[in-house]
Amino acid sequence: MLHRLEADSTPWRSGPFHVRPSTVIFGQTYEDCAIELNAFKPQSRVFAIAGAGCTARALARAGHRVTAVDIDPLQLCYAESRAAGKPWQRGAVENLLALGRRMARFAGWSGERVREFLNFSDCAEQLDYWDSCLETYALRSAMDTLLSPCLLRLCYAGPFVESLPGSFGRQIRRRLRRGWATHPNRSNPYAASLLLGTPPVDPGPPAYPIRFVCLDAVDLLESSPPSSYDAFALSNIGDGAPPEFLHRLWRAVEHAAAPDAVAVLRSFREPGPDSTENWASMDRSMLWGVVGVHHIGISGKGGKPCFIG
Hints:
Layout: H1 2-8, H2 33-39, E1 45-49, H3 54-61, E2 65-70, H4 73-83, H5 92-104, H6 111-118, H7 123-134, H8 137-146, H9 149-155, H10 158-163, H11 168-180, H12 189-196, E3 211-214, H13 217-223, E4 229-233, H14 243-256, E5 257-267, E6 290-295
């Protein structure tokens, strides 16, 4: 009975929205796959949350053997179609971002101004342009309103909203500013995707076929033989999840992990006082508060994510 109750508490079983959209949720993945590519040993057996399939495809292109898992059959079908060379399409998240970009025009964000900003390759110039031309009072007010809990709850499920940090609009602006200070815009495809809605970069055909599985991620990990995977690309599977699910998730990861396995786990949370090394500033997508690279079975630095306990 406990196992069934824990399974039902999986936050992604019904998706992050109040009502599951009739289209895919994610048309692309807002995660910098360079994190995983740098963290994983060559030719790893990778367990990946499928999402839009971008990270899974990049890893497979680099020579990893990838199992991509999603509980949403529509989302998984889309990720599989992208791996087969089918075109990119906008999902529910992209439609919300497009609405935000339209509203940004009222804050002075013309297409010409945004394209000029994205053409910079000097981070100091980027910061100056952001501070003087783009992060206006109107933009700050709009972001604080749109990303306030009361409005987010109109679209997103309560547990997911409650997992977000306070003053989420301010935190996102701070993360963006950190990104402009760190990554040249001209060579950052994630910046163009976020500000202009451009399609994601296609990594090319995989070196090995991706295995796609429609199942709860934890169920698959628990049913896998020990030492099945060398690496785990877990996205932000823990955001909005209750403690029971997080403990079950990590037990399942430890069960399926080979010796010296590595897991990458993201979160919209802000890093806590007990956080280990945080790679969020290295992630060119710029949206995450925590990007953790965890060495499975090693306590202390790089071990179990701090919010799992």
